[in-house]
What does this fold into?
Amino acid sequence: MRVRIEFSRYLILMSETSRIYNTHLLQVRSLFILLVFTAVLSYPRLSNAEGTKQTCPFAADTNYLTLLYPIFNHPNYPPFATANSGEAGRLYIHIQNQGETIWFGFAVQSRAKAAAYTYTLFDPSGNIVKSGTVSGTQQGYIKHYLQAVAGPSALATGGYNALSYTTTNTGDYYIEFSPPYNGSLQLKYYDITVSGPGNTPINGRLWSKRWMFNVEAQFNIFKGSFYTYTDDQLVTRMSFDSLQPLIFCVCCNSSGCTNTGNFLQDRCSVPYSSIYGQYKIFLNEPDPVSYPTGAINGVSSFSANPTCDGTVTFNFTVGSNCIADLLINVNSPPGYNPVDITMVKSLTPGFNTFTWDGIDGMGNAVPNGTHVEITGTVSNGLTNFPMFDVEILGGIDITQIRPTGPKPALFWVDTLLYGGNGQFNLDGCTAPDTSCHRTNLGNANTLNTWWYALSQTLTPTSFLMHRSWNLQLSHSICDGDSLWLAGAWRKTAGNYISGAPSILTGCDSTRMDLLTINLQPHGNLGPDLSRCAGESVTLDAGAGPGFSYQWNTGATSRTLIVNTTGSYSVIVSTPNGCNDSDQLLFTSQPLPGNTLIKHN
It folds into this structure.
């Protein structure tokens, strides 16, 4: 029994010793990786890569890398970096000068269906300049994370044995992959680096309008950043807090989830997949030589001009392409309210004009004399960032890179999500951290956030609404009657107009009265009558279209036969309500009796 106890103690002691040893080994290994990684990042000559280094910037996160995710066919996402991706989904490498070299390498995720990858490199004209299949230890294979962030071994110590191509043309080259089974390809490590003379690395040359990534598990967090280059040549950096997307697409554009031309509708988040790429997106700041900073010129004049037809014309003079975003406050508290109107319009250099129809947010015409205040911004670098199926968005942080400027405010409208219960922010979120647009409504929805790289706040302007007051009334009278209209008694059919300019706005206040004259019947039974007893007469009230009759005897016919003494009257009426009456006295005289005549 004692031997068993001692042996058990021995096993426990050995197990504890082994645990301590393994723990120390892991700590030493982690410290070694951290030191090497720190060294790599401390010397620019040793860290020349575009790819994994930017989308998984922390060595401690290598257990859940962000994978590059070329897609040929997927039910929810557009293709990316494959033969059917089209211009918006290609993975481009920009070449500024002939003779620059493209270095590249990848590693397929070991859990993927295929351990190798097949690539094809095209020149700007679409000609194949290099292709092949890579696996294992072949050239172009990246063995581990530190190689991926160091870059090509030809450019940095500790890097990977990169494939390369020395360019003979300038412009945008692009690379395509052939996923197995026409599905998707999970590239665990990836790098595409451009170098110039003397193998000098040039960052900011790798871009796409529609990147696709995979963080491997639904609740893994993406910790990278992206740089977007707008069509007006402004650069902003996008960073995130607790972005948990699984598979996600990175794209930016000028309108939102859709591009119908209706700014207010296009920029709303939607309960389905709706994403499209327009702007170039980089993993590093775009090379300033290839992608220069655009010139910014603001508003030199702005005016709001109400007219008496109820419309308001807005006039702008601007110095560059920009967006006018107006809030039309219709006699309501400050900030956006349902009765208010928002308008978003594109402006081009020079004079611009557009019109508001004078209808408020509830669909009603704004009355004459209503106080209206216009606030808003004119902005450059409008960027929409729609993301589909990102289960949790912990917040977005935007930094103005070129030209330098204050942190842009973020905007969103999620009211179409979850039965209209989503939130919105049209005033602009300017939190100092990444707390703007935090939401858990991303599952199976497209969340859109937008911002302006540079904005000029318009000086608020107010005015009284102008609208001519027009009233039209209809009247009808019987022929022979009269009605007081437009300052006089009127007996003739016609239009009678009256009014005066509004005291508030000077617009006309007009009243039009339409007068109709209706047929007037004339009941005429003639003079009183007398007849001998036993004789009768027929009384006739007169004929007319639609005439009706009411005799005091209860009869309703046009004529009445009478033979007894009495007063007889009739009312003659027309369908439009005009009437007349008459009466007569009928006397039945007794016959004379027999009389004897005496003769003398």
User: Anything to note?
Assistant: The chain is about 10% helix and 40% strand. The two ends are 191 Å apart (CA to CA).
